[in-house]
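#help-structures
NK: newbie question, is this the right format to request a structure? protein is Battenin
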Amino acid sequence: MDQRDGVINADPATTTPTEGRCQRWRNQSGFWLLGLCNNFAYVVMLSAAHDILKQQESQNATAPTPAPGLQATGNSSNSSRYDCNPVSTAAVLLADILPTLLIKLTAPFYIHKVPYGFRVLLCVATATISFLMVSFSSTVLMSISGVIFASVSSGLGELSFLSLTVYFSRDVLSGWGSGTGGAGVAGAFLYSALTQAGLSPRVTLLIMLIVPAAMLISYFALLAFPPSFPQWRSREASHRGSQERQPLIVEDDDYVQNQREKEDRQPGPLTFSDKLHVLKGLWRFIAPLALVYLAEYFINQGLLELLFFQESLLSHAEQYRWYQTLYQIGVFISRTSLYCLKIKKIWLLALLQCVNAVLLSFAVLYQFLPSVWLVFFIVVYEGLLGGAAYVNIFYLISTETGDREREYAMAAASVGDSVGIALSGALAFPVHNYFCSL
């Protein structure tokens, strides 16, 4: 075995150049698809947020009761100068992020006991349930429950796959980041395009059941795992097993000494105090990541639904969907940029994102933006900042943490974006109520 940069790889002496290139291609493609599939349901639920809440308005109206499932939307009418849903789309955002936040806060302390294979099966199952529940929903409560299942799948998958990268060459992190960005584009674009083409939101979500199946195939059929990878065993069990597999009779003193030195170089799993110490050092990464996501999701779920241009040919729901789509295009571009550009000034990215949030807050209050096309440009720029912050922060973590701490650090730091998103959802509620009361 060859352990390079804290990454376990196949023995280079038994791997031909052609096999090495093939494995590298498989792993890059596998992590790209895993990133795509993992974030897909999460993105689709945010893109459908306006429709999910529009269903509540339709059911509370005096008009005849609509058919079960999400309804295609038109413009709502109310006494506010804004075209407001009764509830902010932040309600869907919170349902989409709070379970993820809970998982990311707690799982790094126990998830190492669950083998990776079982984790992936759980992610696939919860993603499937989420699409089914939301597509067949007859109440907003049922729709929100489906969103929660999507959140569980995304949160567990993100921290698991980020930890998984330490078993492969470091360049798979670029594939993962690009794939998560691709999920934004694919999820938001497909939902917007299919519903605007005339398909009901229910049929659109049922079509997307192919995504959990693709995750299953990507993980179990595409990735080229190293021989020692603990697929169905926990890392602790694998470590104990390697210590127990020793000859019963050993006469060579040099062999015994070499084995003892080898064990000393391979310390056991991190203790609870070790993890707290690592977590303390991670705050310089977690804080800017949280700030970036606080600003951008406050924009996406607190402000964009209030930026409605009545003179546009697009309806309110259509404008909202394309805001989400263009934002995700920006995210995809910047998350893919790690292949050719690396940024160390992550606090600058956070500051620029906060400037965006302030600018669009005043735009909602004073309505001085002349066209929806200008907002389209701003949300693309917003996505560029958010995606760049995500991939560069995790790249810096992968290069600046020790071999023993890297797997835990990658999982623990993922809490940063979830904290920022949850805070933005809580902040969006009073902001939505304030503007809609004007």
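mod (FA): yep, format's fine, and the tokens are attached above. The chain has 17 helices and two strands.
NK: thank you!
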